[in-house]
């Protein structure tokens, strides 16, 4: 009974022991698995951190086309949505382009089928990155048909490649430019290799040695310079390479059949070769000769200037002077030819009293020595010398050292400037005190100058004028001073016309206070405009009064003319009766008359005829301009002259006057009024016989040229005194005979001149006391 319980306990203990042993084993395994899991997690985090900082990320493409990639890689592709397939790498304007996505699918498909890796460079849309994709088949542990695509960020590498490509292009361009420059250089240039043989020549070298091309020259080894190695072209190249510095030689050469002298320069290069070029120094010598001739011509020109010129060399010795300098400072040419120093020249000037008076002459002289090192351009001074001389001094330091001095005598200019200043002051005083109001407007329309009357006339503030207002603002300001404010616009119009069109215009304007002004805008030579205003109030009043008086006189003259005309007609009626009865008596109708009575009747007929002529003349004069009116027609002047002579023939016979008529065939025809022309000849003939005594002589002569006809009436009467001659054509001269039997001054000559001038002709009267009178009438053909 006791044994059975013990066995049970042993069995239970054994079971418990086994369970404890199994638990301990499980605990050990769990702890070890935990340590391994923590290590895996740590390794995984480290790998993820490395992947995040790596420039390459992996994308897994499975056999069924699914794609696994980290979010950062999707960001590289510029995608905001995680792609699940290769086609999803193209998402509109983001990710790969459609073409790139299709090419990537094709590469992955080939890699899955053949296991061939691929490489491709792509730039996603909207992303600044440049990506390089490398795809390979994944290990079998990842599954069948899995492709791992490593994506590398090659942005910096691409930038560096582009930069190096740009540098390479620039270097290539620089090399091409340098090669082109060498090839286009006008001087022969070449390059020798380490063996001192020609390796490159330019076109100028080929032309100089008369080769076909550069390859031909190099192949034949044609040297530009003649001579042996010791004294030839290789000597300079060898010396340059041996000493490591450029070598220079002057050697002869024959180019284009001419003997030339060349300066040959050989320059050693780090490559062991030697580069060289040759300069034709004969052209340089010619240039130097030309420069020398130019300098000589320049000095000759300076010697002809009116200004004094002196040049000092770098050693401050006088190297050149012209004759005006010697005369201006009273220096002997022999002394100047010894090249005196600058200080000695100044001292000699002081001795000749040709320097300004200064207290500290040594200090003043030391300051002038500073002209030799002046670097800020020329220095100018004005010297006021004793005796009223003014000299302008210009000192210019020379680039090669030395000093150039120019002395200009400005005494006359200073005197002229002083006279000009005096003239300006006089003009200003005159301008301010003129009776006219004056204002000067500049080319921009602003008021520049004005006198006192201008300001007083417009009654504006001096402050306003001092602001130089524009002409528009000025016109607006003074508009209220005008009787018609709207006429203020005339001021800017006239000023602009004078400034822009250079036209002078004027007019009259009335002010609100009743004054009247005559204004004008005058263009000035300097482009400005002068605006003037003259007070014509008094003259306008006088003009108005004169106009009223003239109207009254004109009315009175019309009344007088009408009265004279009426009286003339009234006088003609009884005069006709007197003439008729006198002719009847003279004709014997009332019986025979005694001889004395017959002479009385003849005197009555002469007086009646003269009175009738005077009445006709008075009528012509009272008509004024109407009396000068003519009817144009073709007139035979010879017929007119003879007709006029026939009309006065009875009166001439009664006075027993010798009358001669000469009518040439050249008198011809004229355009005019035959009646008026006949009256002209009659007036001249009656004027000639008016004071002739019995037995006197009258000559009527008529001729002409192709352009003019001429009528001459001359007599041998007593002639006219100077006073009567001066009033011969005065229609108001005293008529009839004057005491002592002198020539009468009637209305005939004034009327004759009036009619002749109406025909466009001229009348000339020549008379001398005791010699007679000559009247010449010239009439134009047309």
End-to-end distance = 194 Å
Strand pairing plus helix content: what structural class? alpha+beta
Sheet with most strands: strand arrangement? 2-1-7-6-5
Number of helices: 23
Anisotropy-based shape: elongated
- CATH top level of the largest domain is Alpha Beta
Counting DSSP E segments of at least 2 residues, the number of strands comes to 29
Nearest-integer average pLDDT = 80
Can you give a write-up of this model?
The chain is an alpha+beta fold and 782 residues long. It has 6 domains: 52-153, Beta-Lactamase (2-Layer Sandwich); 185-286, Beta-Lactamase; 305-415, PAS domain (Beta-Lactamase, 2-Layer Sandwich), CATH 3.30.450; 434-535, 2-Layer Sandwich (Beta-Lactamase), CATH 3.30.450; 546-622, Helix Hairpins, CATH 1.10.287; 626-780, Heat Shock Protein 90 (2-Layer Sandwich). Helix content is 47%, strand content 22%. It is built from 23 helices and 29 strands. A 5-stranded antiparallel β-sheet has the order 2-1-7-6-5. It has a 5-stranded antiparallel β-sheet with strand order 9-8-12-11-10. Helix 18 runs antiparallel to helix 19 (595-622), helix 20 (637-654) packs parallel to helix 21 (674-689) and helix 21 runs antiparallel to helix 23 (748-758). The model is unreliable at 734-745 (pLDDT under 50).
């Amino acid at each position: 009974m006791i044994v059975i319980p013990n066995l049970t306990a042993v069995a239970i203990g054994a079971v418990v022991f086994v369970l404890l042993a199994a638990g301990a084993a499980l605990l050990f395994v769990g702890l070890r698995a935990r340590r391994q899991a923590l290590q895996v997690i740590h390794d995984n985090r480290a790998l993820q951190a490395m992947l995040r900082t790596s420039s390459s990320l992996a994308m897994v493409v499975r056999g069924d086309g699914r794609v696994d990639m980290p979010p950062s890689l999707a960001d590289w592709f510029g995608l905001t949505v995680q792609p699940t397939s290769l086609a999803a790498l193209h998402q509109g304007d983001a990710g790969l382009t459609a073409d790139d996505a299709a090419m990537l699918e094709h590469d992955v498909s080939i890699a899955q089928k053949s296991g061939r890796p691929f490489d491709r460079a792509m730039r996603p849309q909207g992303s600044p990155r440049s990506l390089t994709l490398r795809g390979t088949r994944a290990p079998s542990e990842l599954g069948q048909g899995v492709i791992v695509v490593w994506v590398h960020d090659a942005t910096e590498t691409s930038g560096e490649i582009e930069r190096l490509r740009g540098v390479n292009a620039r270097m290539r361009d620089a090399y091409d430019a340098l090669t082109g420059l060498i090839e286009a250089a006008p001087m022969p240039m070449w390059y020798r290799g380490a063996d001192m043989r020609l390796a490159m020549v330019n076109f100028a070298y080929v032309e100089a040695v008369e080769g076909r091309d550069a390859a031909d020259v190099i192949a034949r080894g044609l040297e530009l310079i003649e001579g042996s190695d010791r004294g030839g072209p290789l000597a300079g190249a060898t010396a340059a390479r041996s000493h490591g510095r450029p070598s220079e030689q002057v050697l002869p050469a024959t180019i284009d059949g001419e003997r030339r002298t060349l300066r040959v320069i050989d320059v050693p290069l780090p490559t062991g070769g030697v580069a060289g070029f040759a300069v034709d120094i004969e052209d340089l010598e010619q240039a130097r000769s030309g420069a020398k001739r130019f300098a000589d011509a320049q000095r000759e020109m300076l010697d002809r200037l009116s200004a004094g010129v002196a040049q000092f060399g770098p050693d401050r010795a006088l190297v050149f002077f012209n004759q005006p300098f010697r005369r201006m400072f009273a220096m002997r040419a022999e002394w100047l030819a010894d090249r005196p120093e600058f200080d000695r020249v100044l001292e000699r000037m002081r001795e000749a009293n040709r320097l300004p008076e200064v207290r500290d002459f040594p200090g003043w002289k030391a300051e002038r020595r500073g002209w030799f090192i002046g670097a800020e351009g020329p220095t100018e001074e004005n010297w006021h010398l004793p005796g009223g001389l003014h000299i302008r001094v210009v000192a210019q330091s020379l680039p090669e050292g030395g000093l150039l001095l120019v002395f200009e005598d400005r005494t006359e200019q200073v005197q002229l400037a002083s006279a000009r200043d005096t003239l300006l002051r006089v003009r200003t005083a005159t301008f301010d005190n003129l009776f006219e109001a004056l204002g000067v407007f500049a080319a921009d329309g602003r008021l520049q100058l004005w006198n006192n009357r201008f300001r007083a006339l417009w009654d504006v503030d001096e402050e306003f004028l001092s602001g130089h207002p524009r002409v528009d603002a000025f016109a607006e300001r003074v508009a209220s001073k005008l009787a018609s404010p709207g006429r203020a616009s005339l001021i800017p119009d006239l000023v602009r016309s004078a400034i822009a069109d250079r036209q002078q215009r004027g007019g009259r304007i009335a002010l609100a206070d009743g004054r009247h002004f005559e204004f004008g805008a005058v263009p000035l030579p300097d482009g400005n405009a002068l605006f003037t205003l003259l007070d014509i109030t008094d003259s306008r009043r006088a003009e108005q009064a004169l106009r009223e008086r003239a109207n009254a006189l004109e009315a009175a003259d019309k009344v007088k003319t009408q009265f004279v005309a009426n009286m003339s007609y009234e006088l003609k009626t009884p005069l006709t009766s007197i003439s008729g009865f006198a002719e009847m008596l003279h004709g014997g109708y009332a019986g025979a008359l005694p001889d004395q009575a017959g002479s009385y009747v003849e005197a009555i007929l002469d007086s009646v005829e003269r009175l009738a002529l005077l009445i006709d003349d008075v009528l012509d004069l009272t008509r004024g301009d109407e009396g000068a009116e003519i009817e144009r027609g073709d007139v035979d002047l010879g017929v007119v002259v003879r007709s006029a002579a026939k009309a006065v023939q009875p009166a001439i016979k009664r006075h027993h006057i010798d009358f001669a008529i000469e009518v040439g065939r050249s008198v011809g025809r004229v355009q005019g009024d035959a009646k008026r022309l006949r009256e002209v000849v009659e007036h001249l003939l009656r004027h000639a016989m008016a004071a002739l005594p019995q037995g006197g002589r009258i000559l009527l002569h008529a001729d002409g040229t192709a352009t003019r006809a001429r009528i001459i009436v001359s007599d041998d009467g007593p002639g006219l005194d100077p006073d009567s001659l001066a009033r011969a054509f005065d229609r108001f001269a005293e008529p009839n005979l004057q005491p002592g039997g002198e020539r009468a001054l009637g209305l005939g000559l004034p009327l004759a001149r009036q009619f002749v001038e109406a025909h466009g002709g001229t009348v000339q009267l020549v008379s001398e006391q005791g010699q007679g009178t000559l009247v010449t009438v010239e009439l134009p053909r047309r």
